[in-house]
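It is worth pausing here to work through a concrete case rather than discussing structure prediction in the abstract. The textbook approach is simple: state the sequence, then state the predicted structure, then interpret. We follow exactly that order.
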Amino acid sequence: MPAEIQQPLAVLFTLPDGVIHHGVLHDLPNQQLAADLAVGLVAATHPHGPIRTRSVARQYMTTMRRMARDLTALGFTGGLADLTPATLVQYWLTCDYHRERRIRVVLNAFQETAGGLDPGICRHLAGRRINKVGKSRPNQPYSDGEWRRLEASCVDQIAAARRTHRQALEAAGRGADPSVHGVTFDNLAWLWLHAGPAEARRAVERSGARGDDVDRAQIAAVEAALFPASETAFAYLTLFAMRTGIVPDGIDALRLDNITRTSANTVLLSYRKGRTGDEALNLPRDAVRLLDRWLEHSAQLREHAGDLADRLWIYVGRDGLGRGQGRIYDRPRGQRQRRAWTESSGVLGDDGRPLPVHGGRVRATYQHRRDRTTWTGRTTIDPNHSARVEGDHYLSSHTPAQLDALEGVIEQAQGDVRRKAAPPVVISSEDAATFAAGFPAWSRTPVWTRRPSRLCSPVSRTCSLPRAPARSTARTPRREPCVRPGRGCVCCVRSPRSRPVTCPTCSGSRSTSPGRPSR
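Step two, the predicted structure:
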């Protein structure tokens, strides 16, 4: 059975991969409603329903227990068959999207298994949900400072644990049976190494170590030195996630048979991503070294792990006072372990508060940093697009004012380049005074009749007006401009279909047409 009802009232979930979860319902005030909810929970368990992991089972149990308490507070005393649509809709209005979704799943499963729900409730179950799902927010990557502090904390903790582990192995090599040779650190290390954590504790309790009392702190020190604790396993796991970017659920469920050695320094790691399926990854070199160190660190504990020996992340469970039973666990990234590691590590965020470790944020930061370091600017999403087009459409969202500002900057830069390429203009003070005196009258004359005789400097023989390119057409042969050093000014430009005009300054000829300016 995937799930079964036990007495006193509880639900025992038997989930895939042998996961067991026990949910208690006998302490609820309305036992009739609790019994009906237990029937719905059993019917909604995998393979008949969506309850297939421990976390999902825990969420459903929390929702059902809260529903039973809230309905009792509203004055409801019956079972699901006595529930009216008005009461149910009134309660749904106080729920969020996910609580309403779980309640609908359990009520549908109860109706298919036992039946008896009000027809109005059945119509509501077949219709649309009342609450809408909230807009999700993507995981925000850690900042560079937070990432470096988190990585440094994991590296330091792993290095300290490895040093202690080597010292404990050396002590165990020097030790002997403590029941014969007395209680010392070396003898306790020998006992824990050969008997395992659980059996060693029972041996100490049974024999009393020749009548000598063994301090619990001493036992905890030996156990923590020889076998990885939850904090050490969590540091290894977090650093492995930071160097590979694998999804959290894929890392947590890794087994030894997922590791394929392709050479002495390369590893092909296969894992399962919950939303897509099986995937594989060629581990980078630093991740391979970290994996080898973890396998070496946990090798002694794996010999005593029994059925959990195939799990990759195993550790010995205990509290700070050494009051553990020597049990071996395989998932070091629970909520309690994350909270305890955050408090013990002392890693702070940019805001000065303790930095929580979130698997989704670790993966998001890994991808964010990888994209920033490997981006070359030449990669395009669509090979038919240029990098500029994709940059404008996908990597930027400029406003019209920003685009105008950018175009202005580009125009100024182009003008600077053109000014630097132009020959220098040398004007004496006498030329400047003459130009200033005649400029008002000169500016009132038509453009095609202007004769700027004083604009060409007698020193450099160059024109102070901007140059204009000469044009020619196939119908009119091109006339050669004046060959004097002042060639290229506006007054020396020829225009087709016009009469020639003599330039007074350059002694060249130019062409203008009445009523039409020269080009």
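Step three, interpretation. The beta strands are 3-6, 10-15, 19-24, 259-261, 267-273, 277-282, 315-316, 328-329, 499-502, 509-512. The two ends are 93 Å apart (CA to CA).
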